[in-house]
Amino acid sequence: MQTDPRQTISEMCQNFYRQGWVSGTGGGISIRREDRVYMAPSGVEKEKIRPEDCFVVDLQGNILERPENPALKLTECAPLFLSAFELRNAGAVLHSHSSNIVLMTMLARRLDEELSVLEFTQLEMLKGIQGHGYYDTFELPVVDNTAHECDLTESLRRAMERFPDSPAVAVRNHGIYVWGPNEVKAKTQAECIDFVCEVYWKMRSAGIQSHLSAPATPASVS
Amino acid sequence: MQTDPRQTISEMCQNFYRQGWVSGTGGGISIRREDRVYMAPSGVEKEKIRPEDCFVVDLQGNILERPENPALKLTECAPLFLSAFELRNAGAVLHSHSSNIVLMTMLARRLDEELSVLEFTQLEMLKGIQGHGYYDTFELPVVDNTAHECDLTESLRRAMERFPDSPAVAVRNHGIYVWGPNEVKAKTQAECIDFVCEVYWKMRSAGIQSHLSAPATPASVS
Amino acid sequence: MQTDPRQTISEMCQNFYRQGWVSGTGGGISIRREDRVYMAPSGVEKEKIRPEDCFVVDLQGNILERPENPALKLTECAPLFLSAFELRNAGAVLHSHSSNIVLMTMLARRLDEELSVLEFTQLEMLKGIQGHGYYDTFELPVVDNTAHECDLTESLRRAMERFPDSPAVAVRNHGIYVWGPNEVKAKTQAECIDFVCEVYWKMRSAGIQSHLSAPATPASVS
Amino acid sequence: MQTDPRQTISEMCQNFYRQGWVSGTGGGISIRREDRVYMAPSGVEKEKIRPEDCFVVDLQGNILERPENPALKLTECAPLFLSAFELRNAGAVLHSHSSNIVLMTMLARRLDEELSVLEFTQLEMLKGIQGHGYYDTFELPVVDNTAHECDLTESLRRAMERFPDSPAVAVRNHGIYVWGPNEVKAKTQAECIDFVCEVYWKMRSAGIQSHLSAPATPASVS
Question: I need a labelling partner for D171 at 20 to 30 A (CA). Which of B185, B196, D7, D82 fits?
């Protein structure tokens, strides 16, 4: 017995707001139930979304149900969300504007004119990212940002194809899209990715070059 | 059907307190309905303001309604708030003492004896600031602080005239005034400005000089 | 009509816990009503204090009323709180273990074998500290910590006498005692002091030497 | 009259989530009542655990009661929790994935191929760690992480035997296990350890080499 996705979207956006992921109307989440996709509206305070403010679209993005309030528009992330549903058979996709993500994208290693990558390894929290163990290297693709959100769609799709093991694609100076088989998995994976970004950033800020085990160098802090 | 502005002021101040913008009785918000302006009282814990503690003034600052509690005084930000209503036809103006803002004002580039500027570009969150896209440069004017808050009025007005594209004026070592066509827009723009200040400060603290796209320099963090 | 001080202590400790000032059973607050002083118990989770857990003592520290729970003991801060009531005619005294304070005490300038000082100026939030304007220098005395909290009493009293303009005395590597004519003023002054410590620490961490106005040196962050 | 441990586990996990200790399904807590041990399930959002989701095991780890929901599995921390109950006669053991802990483990001084140590002294919050006073040195053992959580058991037990004065063992790049005679003491000690890690990390990041008293070197921050 699943909960009403509109109610879930409302509650999850409140959690994301408290986490600092959706301030200033950025970010959001979409949840799929079979061939119906529930999405938050665009340009509103995410922490104040009520269930009745949500849209329902089909897998091609056609609006099936819209909220009563005529001022509300569909989220601009729609094509990006739908790409994850299509290419990954996701059950939910979220979009976070967390500063931890934004800062780490600045350190991404460039691969070509539209794509970079961040690599993380040997942090326990990586285990919360599907398919990754402690000693694995989690490769997070980072696409360059564009003037308009919908223009990200093609580069996001290419990044997803090039990095099939990642449940996320980050966007330089912007944020991240994270999906999963359901909304809980999307959220928990997003929390793990946010955590490793926070930790790597703090390591970098403190001048720590490596945290890999068996460094053999005695170091002490008194 | 609009909500009671007094109730909104009370709720928004609680949000601002949780965000760290109005601790120690600093900061606040004013909301305009036609020719009546609702303002919080001065020198009280902002997170404890009740609707009945609010003042109502006219557009010249004359008190139309005052709270029952005789100990309450009108906010000292009144002339500053009224300047934004007058010069920008704002619907709401807020004042934040966020440490993210205070710290960034210390890095502002000086233009003359009373005015400096901060420049931000290529962060997605800038899109939440009216009139700014991802590749635009958001210029945030920063006026020097004064011994008394009302003495800021003239320099704040000059900054507003010199920087018509900014929905905000920051005050060095003090905080920021942010306005918008309504209280939601004032708050969300303030969140976006606070976010870009937090990110720029963390970049500066970590020694990152530039985050602009296509750096072509492969950099990796292991 | 004043609220029940026991209720206030309970609520304020919950606020302090959320602010990070009283984790791990550290910190607390005492409130005076004429010649009765209400204090929190020792060694309990401060965010879970119920009104009936509070002690009432006289101005010499003799217990007038104790909570029903026989396991509860009077706070070890009692002599320190009572010193502020005596020497400053305070209405309330709080004790915070905030990490912002602890970190800044490490930078205090030593004056003699038991006393150091921190100096803050030109931050708007200093106005929230009684008797201080924007251009004033707030001198915060810092006494060295001791093995037992009650052993701080003498040095704390000497610091209070030497720095009559400060509503607080910090303790190196430990925290701070802040008082005021009532509990609201004690809390709001504590918030202002905590804020300026947070800002000075972040300036120091980022290598900023001075934030004083009219630096005349054009600096820009892109 | 003790509260229902299942209810306590549910409430404490919500507190831990707010503290940032159990995001992304990591971390947890177990509580012992005589020979029955209550534990949270594995791989679920810790902040959403309901009392009826808890397991009850005996001191050897055999399941005595399991939740109705057949999808729930016993926490993978079970052998680690049980080791603390056995070797320390603990009343409760918690597991935190706090980033403050993870970062500090990177600075631990290596003792042998599986064990390192962190040393803390002269912070008031150390008094909240059983058996430690202000001038004592708290030695926190840090074992290397392994691919699977249960593989930590042997090294954790050896660390506990080698460092009998520590109520905790940290795991490099992973987190920490903290116990106490009851759940309150486990939590408050965990808060104190988290605090000293946060402070030491910030000192290290700011380049402060020592915070020990009587430095005799006048230093000032303006």
Answer: D7
- Find residue A31's DSSP bridge partners: A38, A92
For position C44, what pLDDT does the model report? Answer: 94
pLDDT of B222: 37
Q: Is residue A26 part of a domain?
A: yes
Give percent above pLDDT 90 in chain D. 90
Mean pLDDT, rounded, for B26-54? 96
Pairing relationship of beta strands B137-143 and A175-180 according to DSSP bridges: unpaired
Contacting subunits of C (3+ beta carbon pairs below 8 A) = B, D
For the question of whether the overall pTM of this predicted structure is more than 0.90, the answer is yes
Residue A12 has pLDDT above 70, yes or no: yes
- Parallel, antiparallel, or unpaired for β A175-180 and A168-171? antiparallel
Domain that holds residue D134: 5-205
Record: contact A219-D102, CB cut-off 8 A: no
Q: Does residue B220 sit within a domain?
A: no
Question: How many domains are there within chain A?
Answer: 1
D91 closest CA partner among D48, D164, D166, D29 = D29
pLDDT digits (tens, 9 = 90+) for B57-115: 999 999 999 999 999 999 988 999 999 999 999 999 999 999 999 999 999 999 999 99
Q: What is the SS3 assignment for A31?
A: strand
The continuous run of DSSP H or E covering B189 comes out as helix B183-205
Please list every residue in chain D whose beta carbon sits closer than 8 Å to the beta carbon of residue C204: 206, 221
CATH number at residue C105: 3.40.225.10
Residue A212 lies in a domain: no
Query: From start to end of A165-213, where are the E strands?
Result: 168-171, 175-180
Q: List, edge to edge, every strand of the sheet that includes C63-65.
A: C63-65, C55-57, C36-39, C28-33, C92-96, C175-180, C168-171, C137-143, C115-121, C109-110
Beta strands B36-39 and A109-110, pairing class = unpaired
Instruction: Evaluate whether residue A187 is within a structural domain.
Output: yes
Token pair listed for D6:
């299942």
At B185, the amino acid letter reads: K
Give the sign of the dihedral formed by CA D163, CA D165, CA D167, CA D170. Answer: negative
C124 has catalytic annotation? yes
Helix (H, G, I), strand (E, B) or coil at A199: helix
When pLDDT is cut at 50, 70 and 90, the band that residue C217 belongs to is very low
Q: Which residues of C touch B200 (CB under 8 A)?
A: 221
| D190-201 pLDDT tens trace | 999 999 999 999
